[in-house]
## 1
Amino acid sequence: MEQLSNSNNNANKYLVNLVLDLPLDREFTYSCETQLTLGQRVLVEFINKQVVGFVWRSITELELDCSIDKIKPVINIYPEVIPSDVLQLIKFTAKYYHYPIGQVFFTAVPSLLRKPIFIHLDTEKYIKLIRRDHEVFKKRMGLKQQELYSKLQDSILSYTQIKEILGITYKKLIEKWLSIGVIGYCEGNISTLIPKISNKLPLNTEQCDVVNQISQNLAKFSPAVLYGITGSGKTEVYLELIENVILLGKQVLVLVPEINLTPQLLDRFKRRFNNMPMHILTSNVSEKERVTGYIEASLHTKQIIIGTRMAVFTPFKNLGLIIVDEEHDSSFKQNEGLRYNARDLAVYRANYFNIPIILGSATPSLETLYNYKLKRYALYKLTGRAVAGAVLPEIKLLDLNTIPANNGLTDNVVKAIQSRFINKELSLIYINRRGYAPVISCYECGWVSSCKNCSSNMVYHNKEARLKCHHCGLSYKLPSVCPKCGSKYIQAIGQGTQKIEETLAQIFPEARVLRIDQDTTNSKLAWDNLYAKVHNNEVDILIGTQMLTKGHDFHNLTLVVGLNLDSGLYSYDFRATEFLFTQLMQVSGRAGRGLKKGEVLLQTHYPRHELYQYLIKHDFAGFANFLLKERKGLTLPPYTFYVLIRASSNSLDTTMAFLTQVHELLIKNSDNSTIIYHPVASVMQRLKNKERGQILLSNNKRKELHDYLAMVLPLIEKLKHKSDILWHVDIDPTDM
């Protein structure tokens, strides 16, 4: 921690500049009678309100533009200090994403640290076994107590780990065993613990080679792309490398796209390192748990941190490895507020710490592959499935131009599901559209159930008999007659997960059909229950959205069916085919991961499309090279760099008038290298009752584009506009 000092005429006062949670790119000066540390959390008064601030730098009295007596004092000093490596990351993030430093700071820290309160944390305690020959005592134990006693034979366990074994009565048992001398407290640095390795699977030759090669670079910055086909055992490679890093006394950060989608990954980590203190940092944990994990990682009392994108800002005392699992996943990009990409910030952190980073995926993003082609990243491949004898499934295309579908399902699909049902094997029906039907329409006048707040249709949800907007959340009861003409003849058009669920339940009345989408998994407990049913073979037919395309290993799953796939083939978004190929490659990879052969049936109107032709050959590399060649010819990312300036207001005319002003300013101050496109309405023009528009900027050189932005954004800030105008900048946008 860096102590701040300054010299001024008033020896009892130190001057510091703080960052506050404000949309202003500036610092605020306060005084303090004690010396503060860079990154210190403090309480100050700002416009008659007490708010939290963080010390950013010290200044001298000579830098003031007013008398020192007019500078407000710091009210309270909190013990928490943000470490220097996180401060550097915050500084880089603010500069790269052109976002106010204070708001970056308050995005990066846990919510409790943003509140004007003192935080009292219960320090994690660790227990070790003292009496190892107490067989008579062991015979009087219940099953859970015996499990705990057995684990303590060769492990040191935290209170949290003991609670997971015993449940809510854990404290009483600990007190009892402490009083009779069976156990005692463990003192010292937890980082000196030797990990107890259990449930360790033998690695195949390819996995061993990858582990050995990456392990040679543990002492330096070495970005590694781990490209492994679905089911190739990337997780086992992660675990082996993590073991090597922990044995060096260092910490590990593992970033995952969405924690609910990767329960098997978490389970493997807990079983492999069952005596290693780890913490989960996601939106599912409480505020107290999040700040506890955040602080304990900085103290090195947590060895492994697993989290979603926000975890990239976690402080570490001795970080030795970063892993980004499913690095291609779009959920690593935040699309509100500070629009950062956690994968890219993770690479920056690895460079700062001079440590390796692994970007793992069965379908690496084109940006990552492009960095490999530029020799910035190393590439490691896993080309075979980890389970001996398991092979990739056969992918077949069902041409909807020649094979009719009834209620969205062809006879080929129905027969394939019937065969699996008879053989007691699991079938997965993938349809990336939740709800019952994507639209309700009037047969007589053509009225369509569109959202009044967004440029999208309301989706019909049958069980609740409601129409819902999946963009703004607007919901209302399904009308009994057409709101426009009063006709009773209104109909559902298309299929969503609910309608397919209903259809399959009618075709297979004895089958156990389970639907998994956002409507059925709106809580962690709900997801865990559904997941347990699948693994306990209590499901015959599984229906779901892209939630099921990754992170799951169902060994009894032998059939995958893809429905309503073609919308991604001809989209306004140049990334649509990349995203569709990734989803189909991932969901196809769910089939045949065990010893039973897998099959994939994809219904399409465009079977000769390049995407499907590469897909049936499992040729991700070929399709990626095809897309890169196409992007290069059209000068699209990753061969150029994009920035979007977006604006919204209550009126499209107001929005476009403001963007026209911005466009004129950009042209007037052009740097002659950045391409400035004309303002246009956004594809989703109306969203959450706001009319939206955008201006696209591009440049083949990243630095020139950022230098230009740094010059023009302050000028845009000064433009006069109507009060309802909101605007922001999106660097490296993924949502066009």
## 2
Amino acid sequence: MNQKFKLFLLATCLSSSTFAQTNLRISSPDKNISLTIFTSQANQVFYSFTYRKKNVIQPSSIGFALSKPVAQLSYFTVTSVDSSNVDETWKPVWGEVAQIRNHYKELIVRLKDNSSAGLLLNVIFRVFDDGVGFRYEFPTQPSMHHFVVIDEFTQFAMAGDHKAFWQPGDFDSNEFLYNTTKLSEIDAIAAENSEKGIAVTSPIGPDAVQTPLMLKSADGLYINIHEAALVNYPAMNLMLNKKTLVFTSVLVPDAVGSKAFLETPAKTPWRTIIVSDKATDILASKLILNLNEPSKVKNTDWIKPQKFAGMWWEMHTGKATWQKDGGKHGATTERVKQYIDFAAAHKLDGVLVEGWNVSWEDWFGNWKEPVFDFITPYSDYDIGLLSEYAKNKGVKIIMHHETSGSATNYDHWMDTAYRVMKKYGMNAVKTGYVGKIIPRGEHHDGQWMVNHYQRVAEKTAQYKIMLDAHEPVHPTGLHRTFPNWMANEAARGGEFNNFSTGLPPEHNTIMPFTRLMGGPMDFTPGVFHLQLNQFDPARKQLVRTTLSKQLALYVTMYSPLQMAADIPENYNLHLDAFKFIEDVPVDWDDSKILEAEPGDYITIARKEKGKENWFLGAITDENARTLAVTLDFLTPGATYEATIYRDADKTDWQNNPERYTIEKKVLSNKSKLNIRLGAGGGCAISMIKK
């Protein structure tokens, strides 16, 4: 239904063109959410909303500061209001479900700024059953067509001192561990990282956090704050006033301190608040995807989710190096052949090769350009021979383009580099942006770089290349609009198991509620050798999961591009466990969030695309627990041959973490499972319909 009609729900109406204390209300389709927009006596505009009569957002104001023209947009006159009701269903190119319902009520509030500038501003609200999204629109103005935004004053007033899962605010990195505190205890300067000993320094201030921000209220509401459709605008951080518990948006600045350059008509990203009294509903929400535009890629037949091996982890663990100098170069012709052979033998689609191109000896920390040309291989890496070798084995080589932060250099080389990829039959690229950004003074998450990442997505689509971006801005659902932009890092991923004390067991139980709300993550699961002394006997580092949990991550940490992160030799010692990685799909028809609690545990079951098979992953934090689920989502009357990969008895992340048990069972939709998960452990189950 797409019915539009004028709406004038006003407490007081002085005339047809002048409104005082406007009071507008709109509910979600299921009536559980009630959104109110109103103006004060001073003509400030506020919004608030409730979920099942519980306060989610208290009255919160909106506004902007502009430097061109110089204007403070805080006081407005409401000029008109429109509303509509939309209920449609669309099919993603790939994803966690085969189709998505997009059902919301929309309210457009048209405003005129009361300052001398007299600028026009529209605020568009969409109310879904699981939350609210709103964005600002600067329509065409009578006399001004260009704006420079220096601040956005969107507020999110919390209704209580909620439990928060947060990262410190930052302009360049999302690669922090999560802290779990009350809102009033957030301190991104004094607080140490969750691992006690790694100091956190926020360039914004002690009370600043990043989105996605996950919250849990004392009265049982789960609340997630983020943004959707981040296009031509800087990313949003949040600054907390601890006395009032009000968050205010903080935009990432450019090199001279401005936030956004806009040409009318212009739209900001959506500000999103997802809410439910069930944690499982947060993970199941498709609100952020629904707020993004449909695919701009016309023909998507070439976009294929895939699993791949990686010439990657052995550099992290000291077996090899990215650079050729030193005698331990990893990406040699002979070594990559071994990865290709392994991928072909175990039904993997590709092999990612890092360290193949010249200049790794001089790539980091120099803040210079150019470093890489993205087309010149090292002398011991025969790109033509390996491409043909992989083709004959039914495997594709995945390209790696590390920019060393020099985005201007990458802009210059993209066309040439992608033509080289197509010459050698490559259809996927992993990009990287380690280091300070060039242009100098720009940030990873500012408007200039946001536009750069989109240019890469558009350019790779032109060449029919799939994209996996590392060190980018946080994702905001743009994989709907650019389905070739399949995965991102943008968080503390599996590589950090090699740094400092690694990732704590709770990390993967928080990330689906935070980082993954915006889109799939290239987390790099599947590490089987969990004591990292394999190539350096003096190392005491542990990967703080069990092997079974590493398998479960292929289900709980969704990505259409999944790496088998460990080296082939380690997998060859556990081929019975590796069978799950061989079998688990990366594209799904359905997903069931069976149980979840941020920071504690997650259990997800997913149905294979185009088939009747189901796969289940369950993970826990540092506490052992029992997985207890009923499999009523399976097809009634059908039976399934299940293979259960679980932690062995008395196994946890500290004690024999590589021990696992594999069991076979016949299951149906009436079956119940009770499976022990060791501390830091998990289980993975394949259920193949008989």
## 3
Amino acid sequence: MENFNFFIEYVRDGRTLCESALNTEFYDVEYSADSRFLELSIRTKAPLELKKIGVSFEKPHKDGERFYANGYQAWTTSREYSATDRQRGVTPLACVHPKLKTLAAISGDYLFCGYPKACGIFHGFTYCYFRDGENVELFGSLDERSGFTVFKRDMAKGVFSIEKDVEGLTVDGQYKIFEIMRAEGSYDGVFDGYFERFGVAAPKLKSLSGYTSWYNYFQKIDESIILRDLEGLTRAKDKAEIFQIDDGYETFVGDWLDKNPKKFPNGMGYIAQKIHGKGLLAGLWLAPLNAQRNSRLAAEHPDWLIKNDKTGKPIVGVIAWGGAYSLDVYNPEVRAYLKKVFDTVLGEWRFDMLKLDFLYSQCIHPRNNKTRGTIMCETMEFLRELAGDKLILGCGVPLGAAFKYVDACRTGCDADLVYGGRYYNKIGGGINSEIISTQNSINNTIFRRHLNGRAFLSDPDVFFLRDDNIKFSYEQKLLLAKINNLFGGVLFVSDDVGKYNESQLELLKAAFTKRDVKIISAEYKTKTQIEIVYESDGKTEVLSFDIKIGVADKR
């Protein structure tokens, strides 16, 4: 990585300047580079507001070579791309009005990263790789605290660049920009090396199987439904390990400790006790950084919310629940409130795992002279401090900031109850890359497989075996369950297992049982056809299927 071209864009005395020199009257760049490592820092001689900073390399595209772009956050599309592929952003239909575009873009990187319309131009976050046959060349950031690292590839121009997201940052003195490693070899070999170098410890658990309430009832849960489904899960008690309650138990998002006597008259501590009584771990969903617009918290503590610098009004960070604001984790009162919430849920109610959702909302807007990456890393460190040694399942979080802080993490968007998708998947080809989609969830489960067992337990989201409240064919159900089992570490179902017939029950137990499998390869053979080659029980097996229709080839 010695032969790079440096570039910087910054504001000085009201002027925006673009430079390529390593040393000027305003700054000095210090670096150390060889074929395996690049470390780069800037030392400013006066305060400089940074707009863009990074390095580029000449890297001609090879025929048949694939580029892997890791999406911005847990839900974002992540996959290998070829020269004829195009990386999709927000649908053009959402760009007809600024407010509509902002809402469509809120969960991704669309407001600060460009999505060119041309084929062969891609970008991803934290790490990337080039694959030529079985040879993989990986580039990975070893520090996202200074800002998220963006890897960009232009296949037509033969250019590869590494940029640091520095929006909102003014540097006065020394600032480390990059710490990048390069590794070349087999797929498994380069990722083993990357996460070892990053310092990520192996997950505490080998796998985690069980139930979550969301994908059958959504927010329409109550004590009777939860206890009924808990009893149903005991039919698979030899395979199930955890029972998780998702969104819907709280009065409003943000008002986590308010009693909800109509839905849960005995309280959440009672529910956790019942779960433990069945020999299962108890999990609970939280969106700890958010407050619903009509919540008591938002009304009573408007000073806790992240504000728009110009208008002074709270910023919407999540479009769910009719809109939710984001709490400012740098506010001491917010930190004290969140400590009380975690202490109550984990200590008094005695839940064993927290699913922490919509975390990206904390770093949408850089502030306090901190980049998005800095804010997100510091937030994840704080949440881990609050959780202590309890399990954290991260969701909706930029993955580089989650490394070291979560035990498990979602690796794709929400699965849908309709395999083929709904109106939001069909508007302009899909609203964005984070929108609910079973097909995109499957894609990410496969192409983020390198995270499972290295960075954390991968949560591919749920599979379904039930017959009601679902629009899946039998073959589509089996395919989703198989993909989750092959590539995931968290294996969740959202069905009332008490309604299963014996055949469904046996399928569930098989899906909950992790097989000793070695993935040899996984790639798109056409725009929609994926082929997976793997070894199981000493035999080589091939799974080929059309992701659009969810049907595997018969062999």
## 4
Amino acid sequence: MRTPKGLILWVAAACAAVLLVLGVGAALQYLAADPEQRPELIALAVQGAPAVFFGVAILMAAFGAGASWLYRRYPHAERQLAEQARSLLAADPGFRVAAVGAPPLAEVAAAINQLADAYHRIEHDLEARSAETRARVEEERDRFAALMSELSQGVVVCNAAGRILLYNPRAAALLAPPQAGKQADYTPLGLGRSVLALLDRNQVAHALDMLQHQLGAVDRPQASFVAAAANGALLRVQVAAFIGADRKLAGLVFTLDDVGQLMGREGQRLRLLQSLATGVRGPVANLRAAAENLAAFPDMPADRRAQFVDIAVAEARTLTERLNTALLAYADALKGSLTLEDMRAADLLAVAQRRIAEALQLPVAIEDVDADLWLRVDSFAIAHAMTFLAARLAGDYDLHGFRLRAGSGGNFGEVDLVWTGAIVGSDALSFWEGEPMRVGAEETPLTLRDVLARHGGEAWLQVDKIRQIQRFRLLLPKGQAAAAAPLRTAVESRPEYYDFDLFERIEAAGALAERKLSELSYTVFDTETTGLEPSAGDEIISIGAVRIVNGRLLKGEVFEQLINPRRPISKESTAIHGIDNRQVANEPTIEQVLPRFHRFCEDTVLVAHNAAFDMRFLELKEAATGVRFGQPVLDTLLLSAVVHPSLDNHHLDMIAERVGVRVIGRHTALGDALLTGEVFLRLIPLLAERGIVTLGQALEASRATYHSRLQY
């Protein structure tokens, strides 16, 4: 036990007072004595000084021991009792406070334990009463989880800011990390992460723009596109809006399909067309020749006519067989386009208007729109194409504004980009439609000709010389209007047995230091090493980590990796963590692993036990890897010292026992990270009892502890 500075100072002051009293008494006796007796008094004082000082020392020791005994019996015992009482609710139900200090405090401890017994009895009764309700909830949750897991489509639910709230196993498979060696720049799928790191940012933003525009105009806002995911998979993505009670966009539901096979079918469709073009040309030519001869020579001999008839029958049979074979072999390839979606022409123009205005900083007006016109288009490609045309016009002809129109033209829709003033050459469109479409820094390898071919559409230039009005007209296929559906409230579309608190909590306002500990996302990690001296050349041989989001330890979102340290592992270290040189011989190096771990940790606060040790290893690798962990770090060792300042033992096992966490899987990086995460979650409410509720307060309190002075 460390003796408080105040107690030491108090004992020293008391002893100094004793010496002062003795000194003053001796001085007064000396002054009151006869001058002839003073030399005798001085000699007597010199002779008795050792005995006096020895007696004072004994008095000081006795006084100090008595003060220390009183301190342990009362103030210190009271603090220990208070800290144990604070842990009572968070710890295991069998935990009870120990009787420490004087008899009155032992009586207080007994009373606290009696109250704990009564509390846990009531808690047990309530638990029994709610067991049936929980069973029903769990049954519904299991049904929901089973439904999600059995879906052939991937499902990802996000809040309005794109933070992931829920995903199913199919989505995890579709968005799985790429092959080893390509993972450094890949952010894995996980709760609380941004969907923009997994799918093309521009296309997601475009879909969100469309949904925002459709709010209030259609019953069920939705958008779709095809994009390459961050792991390289080609996905068809459908986005539906989650509408809140205030009729505003509260979230997004993404459904994902792997269209790699569909791309193969598209290739089959092209091969079908090629085979039909080459395979039927000969039979058709022969049929035509036979028919023309029969028509041109009606009086030809019967045997000659029979010969031409046989040729026609044979070629017709051959043509029929080839058509049937091709249609049977490529039936699936005849399905519709990959990327085309049905949408209102007004919505398409609204999206194009915003894109052109933002990209060129020019006024763009919408006029003469057929409100009932629906088009079947790839809205992202068409809006980009119109922005590209506007950019070329503005750059080459110094135009200062555009107008957009849309109307019906028979079986097609007509979308116009209109301008007034400069006369554009008739060959401009022919020249531009073969170029890759670049708008500022954004470029696509597709050309306008590619986009039009994909839609089966056309484009041309129209000129009204009298009014000096020109337009580029895009002829696009018509779509089918979506069937009307009754509006559903947010409550009806929200499963009551599933936790969606992240809608409100994940994007809480305020600076990071002012955010509540309960609102933050964390990465809890641990390392295993070749030894205990990072500055002397010891290396990391294993990293384990788990994420905490919305107060939940996500055991399904973990990072675990052995690392080749390129140096021997000491036998003493192997005896602790069980990792030997053979196990790490073929594992990746720290330069390969650390960038991946950094991506796993992004946008989170780091948590570790005795974090100074682990962070020192990471800091020493900054120069070699170029990876720096700059986010805040919380240490469960320091937080335990904040919660229990009167206790000396803050080992992870001891803290776990105090807060009621079962210790399993120790001395593996992932096992220790999981245990640290459980302990950290139990420490948060104990910190709140001391008024420490924000990240900044937790960091400041940690810095003030004695243990924060440890260095490695």
